[in-house]
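Following up on my earlier message about adenosine-5'-triphosphate. Here are the inputs again, as you asked, copied directly from the submission form:
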Amino acid sequence: ATSPSRRYTITLLPGDGIGPEVISVAKNALQLAGSLEGIEFGFKEMPVGGAALDLTGVPLPEETLSAAKKSDAVLLGAIGGYKWDNNEKHLKPETGLLQLRAGLKVFANLRPASVLSQLVDASTLKKEVAEGVDLMVVRELTGGIYFGKPRGFGSNENGEEIGFNTEVYATYEIDRIARIAFETAQKRRGKLCSVDKANVLEASMLWRKRVMAIASEYPDVELSHMYVDNAAMQLVRNPKQFDTIVTNNIFGDILSDEASMITGSIGMLPSASLGEAGPGLFEPIHGSAPDIAGQDKANPLATVLSAAMLLKYGLGEEKAAQRIETAVLDTLNRGFRTGDIYSESEGNKLVGCKEMGKELVKSIDPVV
Ligand code: ATP
Ligand code: MG
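Thanks, got it. Here's what our run produced:
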């Protein structure tokens, strides 16, 4: 049964490059899947990243952050591009993303990587290795070396320029991400692998100690530990051994990009960033793809699947989320492929971003 009174405000942050193209498709999918479940959306579009730099001089205007904070969930496209790479003032568009994550206090980044049977040929790994991979990387998002102080530029004793950063983790930061990871593992296959570099780094030694302490609260989850270099290797050697992986900010950044290659396309992978309260931030894991921006070549499905995560993890609207996930599979089953996931095989049709969006809409509601 559907109740007609559910209304949510969604902040849309298209950003740069292919961001606006993929957000437009995801917005339509949200609107349609929502309407079929009696959900009404109010969308508010705001500038972020390079687009915001050009408009306002900063990558995250105050109005954008306050709109995001007031809404029920935030859907982001992508940030950055060649245009701002040599910014004189060192004001990088990407700073806007870091500020947004910090402003929304989203400390847990959930990145699923599953090899869909329809796309097993797109995997960079052998079919036997890739088939059936279904893992989730839980990445700590607001701490670690990307935020640690001191940081900056300076000079060493020889007067040579240096750049430096600091890896810092406090107990409470590790405990809260560990709990989210254990709970995620509980909802999946009950296996959690914590990835660190505890043989070398003090921040990792504390990480391992705290994860082991929190484990006592989750006796039903099977916990293992792995060094990050080994994890990077195991991910390509035998990715099926993993269910849920929990790791720090920088290792998670790298390992989830690696996991994305296993699945065959960075254009298929969504993410959810969650905090303790307040709106979640949902975004594809890919970047702004400036090489194909504005050419109607982008795969919108990562953003569409991010919208499904928004419904599921952000709003608790599982049925509407399911409609979108099913429609993505149906569109793939009907052979529609953007360039990044295209392989020459019977029934496959190469399409652009807009046409993919149209086919997706047909899959969500064949009547439209
Ligand atoms: P950024 O710094 O913003 O992360 P990047 O170039 O490092 O940019 P991506 O933007 O993710 O990384 O792009 C990496 C490659 O994957 C590019 O060749 C890009 O064209 C491709 N790519 C990324 N996203 C998509 C997508 N949605 N559809 C098709 N191709 C994509
Ligand atoms: Mg990148």
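One observation from looking it over: The two ends are 21 Å apart (CA to CA). Hope that helps, and feel free to reply on this thread.
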